[in-house]
Design goal:
Blueprint: E1 3-14, E2 17-28, E3 32-36, H1 43-50, E4 58-63, E5 66-67, H2 72-78, E6 79-82, H3 94-104, H4 109-122, H5 138-149, E7 156-159, H6 168-183, E8 187-192, E9 204-209, E10 212-218, H7 219-225, H8 240-249
Parallel strand pairs: 3-8, 3-9, 6-7, 7-8
Antiparallel strand pairs: 1-2, 1-4, 4-5, 9-10
Length: 259
């Protein structure tokens, strides 16, 4: 199995706060992997480290075997990062925006405009090349952000909450685009606060909470395990460690822990 993304004991601290706590994570080449968790779970921090935009406090992160610490320039060339926030570029048109980022990735000047227009065709924005960015709907901005991440044709895409804030039509459009990118052979890591949003998009899911991986597995198996459940507090009269081990081994029990 070829891995596109791999971390080992990856930890990131911000002062005394621990955003990622010894995370071991991997994603197969050509897969679409969902990273799901609440706000503050560490999803964006993980993506930024994988994109070589943020250094880990300890541990290791690799893209196609290349360490983000040892060769961040090579890692950036292999990753396309689409942040959750679009940013403000009020003076740019859509095509100028993509040409600007193509220049950042050293695409030759004479190739930038044709590349930008090809990407707009891919994300179904070919009819809006001269629109200013503040004229775009949220769905259009998400699609343009994906186009930006593709300007240097990276094998790995890191998409931070690409479905957040979209209306139903916008969600459908972005989901279809992500499926198309996967068919192109891209490895895609997508964050979301809602696992249901990623059904039909991702084949594997990893649940992240408070900087730690809680569960990871195939989407279908994980969805079956996470059917609506109710929390229960149980007091054991005997050996608590043994009781916890029994509870954890039960397939109907999720996230057993000591109070």
């Amino acid at each position: 199995m070829t891995l596109s993304i791999e971390t080992r004991a990856l930890t990131r601290r911000f002062g005394k706060a621990v955003a990622l706590d010894a995370v071991d994570f991997s994603a197969r080449a050509g897969s679409a992997h969902g990273l799901v968790g609440p706000v503050g779970a560490g999803k964006t921090t993980l993506l930024r480290i994988l994109a070589a935009l943020l250094e880990p406090s300890s541990g290791e992160a690799r893209i196609h075997g290349v360490s983000t610490r040892v060769d961040p320039v090579a890692v950036r060339a292999m990753t396309g990062y689409a942040p959750a926030e679009f940013g403000q570029y009020p003076s740019m048109t859509v095509v100028e925006y993509l040409m600007f980022y193509a220049g950042c990735y050293h695409v030759p000047a004479h190739e930038r405009e044709p590349l930008a227009r090809d990407l707009l065709q891919l994300v179904d924005l070919a009819h809006r090349p001269d629109a200013s960015l503040d004229e775009l709907s949220p769905g259009m901005r998400k699609r343009l952000s994906l186009a930006r991440a593709l300007t240097h044709d990276p094998p790995v895409l890191l998409l931070d909450d690409p479905l957040a804030g979209l209306d139903p039509r916008g969600r459908v459009e972005v989901r279809e685009l992500i499926r198309e990118l996967r068919l192109m052979g891209k490895t895609i890591l997508i964050t979301s606060r809602n696992m249901g949003e990623l059904e039909g998009v991702c084949d594997r899911i990893t649940l992240l909470e408070s900087g730690k991986i809680v569960l990871s597995g195939e989407y279908g198996a994980l969805a079956a395990r996470l059917r609506p459940h109710r929390p229960m507090v149980i007091t054991f009269l005997g050996e608590s460690d043994a009781a916890l081990a029994v509870a954890e081994a039960n397939p109907g029990v999720f996230n057993a822990r000591m109070a």
